[in-house]
Design a protein that fits this description.
alpha/beta, 13 helices, 13% strand
Length: 502
């Protein structure tokens, strides 16, 4: 007998025909008063290889470039909304969402049921034929964009989407040079490694021809910043004397942008690509109005503006559905991935009819993009965001979490910055607030490991891996936040006590 949506959401009964077993009572190796919120979902019994055999297969048969988190990597078995379960039944609060991908929750019932239904109907045809779901999804997705962004090209990954966006920009403008921020991540393909500007992702092969980077307008770590710069409930600890409506830091960073335009690229450029909030670099935010002025400067040079919404899109910033809307701009091209499919491999490029037409002069084809299955998944994700009120939840719970984390910044000298918007949050760790030098990697790693041992999974980012990235499924609750903040507090106290004992 099929289960109803409410029953699945409550986690009652068996899942996918598996044999259920009880969650293990959490036993933390780190002393803490934090109590994990209850969850009545019961995961299935793990029935695959033992942990040690899984490790052996990983070492022998999986590419070593696919690095894993933690000294003892997790062997995860099942997920339910904001929770993950390992092979022994231990439960973890997931604050990283599969690298900012699981937006509506792990195995969300609505998305799961829509997927199962489509699997029994039609998986794949390629887009040389019409099928209902691609038209239905294209209409639903583009209705969420302002004019003239009404044409979509569906792909399979963020790198692929950004690759295509760059290609479109060059075709449409008949120019070649593209500008990006230092600290940006736009993908790992040979084409997108050009605008990607994080050294760890750069390999010793030629890449980036026609791509120039400009200074990142980082109001915490950069040369300029103040106490009113960014669109966030939490500002930097840096002080400024700017009057109402004036941001000297923004003006200085715009001058640096102009300098890049005048020294590093031709008079006419293809475009400028930027994330509304930098993701991999640790939720770095720019001064208010910076992007608006930068877009104008780019368009004066004949370029198009590309908003990389791979991490910021689909309501994650809370106040708006798309990150670019928080900057009061309308891009020429928008790229989407990650949260678009809640973990299903899909992505998209949304643009104007004129720019999209430039790609139609010759053949350009994508075998799997816009498959019947992908489009049904994408539509179900959009429905879940709306029906579950997840954009509003991102704003409410995200603001609450930012303010709670800011209290830790005020208490601990090694917490240098708390920033973000909605559920796109970064916590930057420093040796001290005056120098803003990154906390040594081994100390950050110990805090990170302790959080995991207490049942909270968080990400890492930044040029020096000095920033904790907190970007959970958007169904997270304030009780979950209280637990996570208490766990983080315990880990910080343990580090402080250890440092004092040395």
């Amino acid at each position: 007998m099929a289960m109803g949506l409410g029953q699945l959401l409550r986690g009652c009964g068996r899942r996918l025909g598996g044999v259920a077993f009880r969650q293990q009572k959490w036993k933390s190796s780190v002393p803490t008063q934090a109590k994990m919120p209850p969850c009545d979902f019961v995961p299935e019994k793990y029935e695959s290889y033992p942990y040690e055999h899984m490790q052996k297969i990983r070492e022998q048969n999986i590419s070593p470039s696919l690095r894993m988190y933690y000294k003892k990597p997790l062997l995860l078995h099942q997920g339910h909304m904001q929770w993950l379960f390992d092979y022994e039944g231990r439960r973890y609060l997931d604050l990283f969402a599969g690298i900012v991908t699981v937006g509506v929750g792990h195995c969300h019932p609505k998305v799961t049921m829509a997927t199962q239904k489509q699997l029994a109907r039609l998986w794949h045809t390629t887009n040389i034929y019409m099928h209902p779901s691609i038209q239905e999804y294209a209409e639903k997705l583009t209705s969420l964009f302002p004019d003239p962004l009404k044409v979509v090209y569906l792909t399979n990954s963020g790198s692929e989407a950004n690759d295509l966006a760059m290609f479109m920009a060059r075709l449409y403008t008949r120019n070649f040079d593209i500008i990006s921020f230092r600290g940006a991540y736009h993908g790992g393909s040979p084409y997108t490694l050009g605008p990607t500007s994080i050294g760890l992702y750069k390999h010793g092969v030629a890449n980036g021809f026609g791509c120039s980077t400009t200074m990142l307008p980082d109001v915490f770590r950069g040369p300029w910043g103040g106490s009113h710069c960014r669109d966030s409930p939490v500002q930097t600890i840096r002080k400024c004397s700017c009057s109402e409506g004036v941001c000297c830091a923004k003006d200085q960073y715009i001058e640096q942008f102009k300098d890049t335009l005048n020294t590093s690229v031709p008079r006419s450029i293809a475009g400028f690509i930027a994330e509304p909030i930098q993701g991999v670099n640790g939720a770095v935010q720019y001064p208010r109005s910076f992007l608006k002025e930068a877009y104008q400067l780019v368009r004066e040079r004949g370029g198009v503006c590309i908003s990389d919404e791979v991490q910021t899109g689909f309501g994650r910033t809370g106040s708006h559905f798309w990150g670019f809307q928080t900057h009061d701009v309308v891009p020429d091209i928008v790229t989407l991935a990650k949260g678009i499919g809640n973990g299903f491999p899909m992505a998209a490029v949304v643009t104007t009819k004129e720019i999209a037409s430039s790609l139609a002069q010759n053949l350009h084809f994508n075998t799997f993009g816009g498959s019947p299955l992908a489009c049904v998944v994408g539509a179900a994700v959009l429905d879940a965001i709306e029906e579950d009120g997840l954009q509003k939840n991102s704003e409410d719970v995200g603001t609450y979490m930012l303010l709670e984390l800011a209290k830790l910044r005020d208490e601990f000298k090694i917490v240098g910055d708390v920033r973000g918007k909605g559920l796109m949050i970064g916590v930057e760790m420093v040796t001290d607030k005056d120098s803003r030098q990154p906390l040594p990697a081994e100390e950050i790693s110990q805090i990170w490991e302790d959080c995991r041992d207490m049942g909270v999974l968080i990400g890492r980012g930044g040029l020096y891996s000095q920033t904790f990235r907190i970007k959970p499924p958007m169904c997270i609750t304030k009780k979950d936040v209280d637990f996570a903040v208490e766990v983080f507090h315990s880990a910080l106290q343990r580090r402080t006590a250890g440092a004092a004992a040395k």
